[in-house]
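Two folds, back to back.
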Amino acid sequence: MKLGLGRNEVRIVDYNSDWKAESERVKKDLMESTGLEENRIEHIGSTAIKAMPAKPIIDLLVGVDNLESVDKPLLQSFKKAGFLRLKVERPGEIVLAKFEDDSYQVKTHYIHLVEYQKPLWKNLIFFRDYLNSNEYARHRYLNIKEEFLRSNSLGIREYTDYKEAFVKEIIDKRT
């Protein structure tokens, strides 16, 4: 299993059943380095959706009580597990990444650090679970991803924006 994408690269690979095992391995590492409980670390993103081709990056959702209380010692414990905080600005979220090597050119894993059981946490879990239980939605999502790749040679921000309406449509089913 080869993980990783370069900066602003968008590439989708066939589903790989090893993604689940890799997410569990990293989850265990994170629990050991941070002391977080198992229920606060979830595998999300397309690599967590059965049979879904995806960008070859493992996304993990990590829940904390309060983002305001994320301190240097916690960030150091993520660093011990190989994750560095990115300069990405997202409301209600701190993003960290693990890289292929010390050149920091190829990201292999992301952590989305959010407040546990708050709306963003619940939305991300709902999206994953909904697609895992709904074949039609999975098929639609894959079509959107493939359509982007056929029609654009733009980067990751455009890719995310392209999928946004579908993601919102699914999350709106939660409420």
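---
second:
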Amino acid sequence: MFTGIVEELGEVVAVERSSGGARFSLGASVVTGDASHGDSIAVNGVCLTVVEVTENGFDVDVVDETLRRSTLADLAVGDRVNLERAMALGDRLGGHIVQGHVDATATVLGVDSDGLTEFSLPPHLSHYLVEKGSVTVDGVSLTVVAPAEDRFSVALIPTTRELTTLGLRAPGDRVNIEVDALAKHVERLMAPQLDRLARTGTRRAVDNGESREQAR
């Protein structure tokens, strides 16, 4: 689990493609301070497992499924990436609960000089975004400014633009999106109850209609 607070901007040092995915060698110094084989590190919002800690960074393996569902397939040597270690018990939750499981990719639609940035949004995710709610973009915890059916916008402060890859993004670039996990859990828990209420309400409406007809 992560918080969406980027600890370090890493760099793609090498990419080794294979039939089942790819191995990425990433340059980093902060997140590797206490890292070891098997640890989880979020790379642009994707939870990955460290397979080797190197002198100047670490290596991760990425399977084809993850490459297809995220923007990691777009990475090339020299690209910068957002890095965050998995949170430890007792850490401050500076952002919000982030799982590192990408829900979809989106496209940057526009960026203005004040940092207001607009992204596309798959319609099936729109109901998870609310004004002043949380969303994760490339591993960065952000506050939703204006949600819509097929897009949303966030306001990037100068610090966020400087310390994350979001300051490098331009219209047309793809990003990883993860909606608030709590919203998904609430929906899953409430769905059976809401469905039951809907069915009960329909039956009651029919019963009431029949009663009125009989009363006539």
